[in-house]
Amino acid sequence: MKDYPVKKNQRIIVSIIDLTHEGMGVAKVDGYPLFIENSLPGEEVEVLVVKVGNKFGFAKVEKWLTESPDRQPIEHIDLLRTGIAPLSHLSYEKQLEFKQEQVQNVMKKIAKMPEVPVYETLGMDEPSGYRNKAQIPVRRVAGELTTGFYRKNSHQIIPIEDFYIQDPDIDKAIVTIRNILRRFDVRAYDEESHKGMLRHIIVRRGHYTHEIMVILVTRKEKFFKGELIAETINKEIPEVVSVIQNINEEKTNVILGKENRVLFGKDHMVDQLLGHTFRISPQSFYQVNTPQAEVLYQTAIDFADLKKSDVVIDAYSGIGTIGISLADKVKDVYGVEVTPEAIIDAQINAEKNHVENAHYQTGKAEVVMKKWHERGIKPTVIIVDPPRKGLAESFIQSAAEMSPEKVVYISCNPATLARDVKLFQELGYKTEKVQPVDLFPQSYHVETVTLLTKIENN
Length: 458
Ligand code: SAH
Hints:
By secondary structure, the protein is an alpha/beta fold. The protein has 10 helices and 22 strands. It has 3 domains: about 10-70, CATH 2.40.50.140; about 100-125 and about 280-455, Rossmann fold (3-Layer(aba) Sandwich); about 135-275, CATH 2.40.50.1070. The protein is about 25% helix and about 30% strand. The strands form 4 sheets. The chain has a 7-stranded mixed sheet, covered by helices on one side. Strands 18-17-16-19-20-22-21 form a 7-stranded mixed sheet, with helices on both faces. A 6-stranded mixed sheet has the order 1-5-6-4-3-2, with no helix packed on it. The radius of gyration is 24 Å and the shape is globular. The structure holds S-adenosyl-L-homocysteine (SAH). This is 23S rRNA (Uracil-5-)-methyltransferase RumA.
């Protein structure tokens, strides 16, 4: 066996020198990195080595010899153990700085644009209880159907009732639903045997409307007393306007299956954003932090500095939130989105908000962009809001060929943002500024809005 500077179960004293972007403290023993949960740079800690790998190991704090001034008391340790709130031991002010620095780093190292200003992260006054959506795994623990969250890097459930970052009314709803399911003797899903019924409970609550949608993800279509259970949920939680059964028969980590059945009420819920009304279907994406989503979209709209003659592409439009919020300022909006349910929502949302100049297309953004280009659509502003993997190269090619004056890039992953703005630069677009917005307090996720402008031909 190879010789490592530390051994499993060894107790040592180390100094924390860094914080990974996932919020783990880093110490080095003779150059060998140890990752340590619940530790912060500057702290001296006594740790127990729990895992020794080829290139790095993991350790657990047994005792703090010194504490960082940036440390704040945590609500409960399960928030770190499960990864629900992996930065909750770091003061909120420092979390915001940490996120700004991460963006600055990738702009330097990946994009090679150290000169681009990365502004201070826009945070929340009250950085807890913000999530409008919960996806809670259901398992059998000690003979009972139980809700909670997975221990990090495992599928072992830790029972939790207070999720801290979720809307407290959602936390309450989950406990009520869990108790109803117990009363009806519903069997919790068992991953190993692929038996049992209930896999996940998803709850969404409108920040402004307080409408609640409940999705019960089941392993089979046949859901004994499903309708009665749904009615009972509505009776005990009157805010519930929709209970959906989602059927997921696969052996998979993917939460949702393809098929939905309405068990009670509507097939969608409604919320508001920037004064507009939006319907949201079970399969559609909707930002989980409503007030901060408003800050994010408003920043994007400000960066776009729109005028009445503008033609805007809203790529990765979801249910149309961004395009519909700015439609009255411009001539036309073209939205593209890959999820068909979301496009139906977007079309209905445009109508509901009396928006007549927004046109939606289902499909992959990279494919539809090319078609729009061939059809001669000439956007002056392109707004993109892709998932973590960022933009396809072919999308960036088409976007640049369409020659808009501005591109506004909303990103949930600084690394792919930095990669993509580099390609935009090669195609004639200058990155002007980056504004981080904290949509996920207590977690390590970083959201940004970036403005790119066309470099005039010289
Ligand atoms: N702008 C919306 C949605 C952003 S999330 C909002 O703020 O609410 C990203 C969206 O991109 C999701 O709705 C997802 O379904 C969609 N998506 C993912 N890959 C895509 C692709 N290749 N082409 C178009 N849309 C895609």
